[in-house]
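Lab meeting, item 3. Inverse folding demo.
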């Protein structure tokens, strides 16, 4: 008789058996379960096909069970899931309680059987595939909540990573390969740890009242000092109740981190940002960690990143940022710039602008109805869509007809007035958006630059 002690998922078990269960019996029981159409307990329905394919590639050989007990890979898996909160996930989303129950059923019943070991094996695989899917592509399919998201998600799947790592007995790869490798992801993880620590220490108190003026002396200033010190914008919360220049420098440091314009005193927008509860900031970080899981894991050494809410473009070469510029993005809601990743395939200098039908009928036709010279004054010409090579005389077009029957194309030739400026960058996509220059350079002086119909206008 052998006595073994097992620690898994915080559960200590003492199990005894005589003679042991032959490995081929465990494999046989496992293959029997894998032949079922219905997923067994502990394996999500949407992961059952992946689990079956994984074991088919392994010829039915167990991955997590060795010599009648969970091996080191199983313990590392449970440790990773128990620490899922550090990745912005929630360990409570995974059925660790069911695993503990299965462990008791397997080892506390007095007799370990091949069927019980096979069921435990599949439950561990189900946990890995569920956790792995969340780590790889996020907890929610972005297209279910936003049709304007069409990024090519990370190509690897949890089962392929698991199979490759298992073949080389490298469990570290089973977890490590799931994580996004971007610097942004690690920065968010660091921020999540900091803000959770702030929350655990009590967070910060709301600063009441309205705007704060330079030179104000009040109890609110003490709250402001404590608030800024909590997030490192001010070295220490100590000080008197006077709003002085040093405190204003700390406020401007906070503003810069939140894309707010520098100034003197605390205006309403800055006060509103200061008063966002720490719990909300934690939630925002968790959501952005998930968003990073939606996009490709690696963009390569040379890529362009448009940060839509920041209104900035960042270009990278050999992994280093080499260029940044302001951009104008789509207006919120109806014309919001979509989120997607693709390859820049073409650059056109001095482009024509073929005005999209929606812009032509909603914006240009009404102007022509008011002023017949509008097209000429703005460098537009009109052609029949069936014969685009021959410009039409605008007087021959019935501009008062129902726009639903508008079968014309309005286009703007190259030049200083062209809405696309002197260059455009194409990356074919179903949204028909691209990056381009613009003659409307005054927009780049504004802090909030959501003013286009979806395309990205470039400062440089």
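The presenter then showed the designed sequence:
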């Amino acid at each position: 008789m052998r006595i073994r002690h097992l620690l898994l998922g915080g559960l200590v078990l003492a199990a005894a058996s005589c003679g042991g269960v032959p490995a081929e019996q465990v494999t046989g029981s496992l293959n029997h379960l894998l032949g079922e159409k219905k997923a067994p307990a502990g394996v999500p329905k949407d992961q059952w096909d992946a689990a079956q394919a994984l074991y088919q590639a392994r010829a039915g050989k167990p991955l997590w069970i060795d010599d009648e007990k969970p091996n080191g890979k199983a313990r590392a898996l449970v440790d990773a899931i128990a620490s899922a909160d550090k990745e912005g996930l929630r360990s409570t989303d995974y059925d660790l309680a069911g695993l503990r129950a299965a462990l008791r059923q397997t080892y506390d019943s007095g007799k370990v059987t091949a069927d019980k070991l096979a069921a435990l094996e599949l439950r561990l695989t189900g946990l890995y595939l569920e956790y792995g899917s969340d780590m790889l592509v996020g907890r929610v399919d972005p297209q279910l909540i936003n049709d304007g998201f069409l990024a090519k998600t990370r190509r690897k799947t949890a089962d392929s990573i698991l199979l490759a790592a298992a073949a080389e007995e490298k469990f570290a790869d089973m977890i490590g390969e799931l994580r996004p490798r971007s610097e942004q992801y690690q920065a968010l993880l660091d921020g999540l740890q900091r803000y959770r620590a702030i929350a655990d220490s009590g967070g910060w108190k709301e600063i009441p009242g309205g705007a704060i003026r330079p030179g104000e002396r009040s109890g609110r200033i003490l709250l402001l000092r404590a608030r800024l010190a909590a997030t490192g914008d001010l070295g220490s919360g100590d000080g008197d109740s006077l709003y002085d220049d040093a405190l204003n420098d700390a406020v401007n440091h906070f503003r810069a981190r939140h894309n707010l314009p520098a100034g003197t005193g605390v205006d309403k927008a800055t006060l509103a940002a200061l008063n966002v509860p720490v719990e909300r900031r934690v939630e925002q970080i968790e959501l952005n960690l998930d968003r990073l899981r939606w996009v490709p894991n690696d963009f390569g050494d040379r890529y362009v990143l448009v940060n839509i809410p920041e209104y900035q473009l960042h270009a990278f070469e050999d992994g280093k940022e080499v260029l940044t510029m302001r951009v104008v993005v789509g207006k919120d809601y109806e014309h919001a710039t979509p989120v997607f990743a693709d390859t820049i395939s073409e650059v056109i200098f001095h482009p024509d602008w073929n005005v999209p039908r929606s812009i032509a009928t909603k914006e240009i036709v009404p102007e022509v109805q008011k002023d017949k010279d509008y097209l000429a004054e703005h460098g537009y010409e009109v052609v029949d869509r069936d014969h685009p090579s021959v410009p039409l005389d605008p007087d021959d077009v019935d501009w008062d007809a129902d726009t639903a029957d508008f079968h014309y194309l309005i286009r703007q030739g190259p030049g200083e007035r062209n809405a696309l400026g002197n260059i455009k960058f194409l990356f074919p996509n179903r949204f028909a958006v691209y990056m381009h220059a613009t003659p409307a350079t005054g927009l780049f002086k504004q802090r909030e630059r959501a003013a286009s119909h979806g395309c990205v206008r470039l400062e440089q």
